[in-house]
């Protein structure tokens, strides 16, 4: 190793040792002053929230078999329970959001649930049969009429976690 | 009268003061005077924070403090605990960057 390289390495280690001492003294000070108590609480919160996420993910995967609706730590149901009543623009019937048995759907009855991925649903509907008209839900600004074709998005907070499915 | 024991002469204190500084000391002084040492320190500190090295070292310190108890740990203990891991876990890119900067300084200082 050349003299310059040796000197460079020496100074680098010198700088690094200074930083190591800084980190050690900072940690020592924080521990002595008890400033790390919040950190322990945050760690515990992170651990609990990770556990809760795992539980919710597991529950939503087994939602069909275990129970229809799972309540998460925020009190929201999965899938979302849609209680609002809308008027179907196809048949004019008053129906509960989340269900539309519109006979104009090419003779089939479809059951719709609100989904988070409204865009995917929109694409599916626009690619579908031209004769079909799916009822979809409006957003949370309070539109009570269902619009044909593309869904305008998630209808309110209670729909934010559901899913569009055509059966 | 006994013969005095042969012993080397007492070093002259004046001679120590006139001792030539080493090359390392000269470079160190130049680095400090030019402000380069502070800049390099800041650069290294910034890079180590960005890559998560500092968080790693803090986690090691916290774990050691938790194990030994807050009142039973000194700064020296923590330094001894984290130094081997700290030196070994420096990313090569950061080390290279700093070494290049130091060498550039040495070259510019015509040393």
Automatic annotation (TrEMBL), chain A:
It comes from the Eukaryota. It comes from Citrus sinensis. This is SAGA-associated factor 11.
UniProtKB/TrEMBL annotation, chain B:
The keyword Plastid does not apply. One of its GO terms (biological process) is transcription elongation by RNA polymerase II. It is found in: Nucleus, Nucleoplasm. GO terms for cellular component: DUBm complex; nuclear pore; nucleoplasm; SAGA complex; transcription export complex 2. Residues 1-20 are annotated as: Disordered. PANTHER family: ENHANCER OF YELLOW 2 TRANSCRIPTION FACTOR. Involved in mRNA export coupled transcription activation by association with both the TREX-2 and the SAGA complexes. The transcription regulatory histone acetylation (HAT) complex SAGA is a multiprotein complex that activates transcription by remodeling chromatin and mediating histone acetylation and deubiquitination. Within the SAGA complex, participates to a subcomplex that specifically deubiquitinates histones. The SAGA complex is recruited to specific gene promoters by activators, where it is required for transcription. Component of the nuclear pore complex (NPC)-associated TREX-2 complex (transcription and export complex 2). Component of the SAGA transcription coactivator-HAT complex. Within the SAGA complex, participates to a subcomplex of SAGA called the DUB module (deubiquitination module). This is Transcription and mRNA export factor ENY2. It comes from Citrus sinensis (Sweet orange).
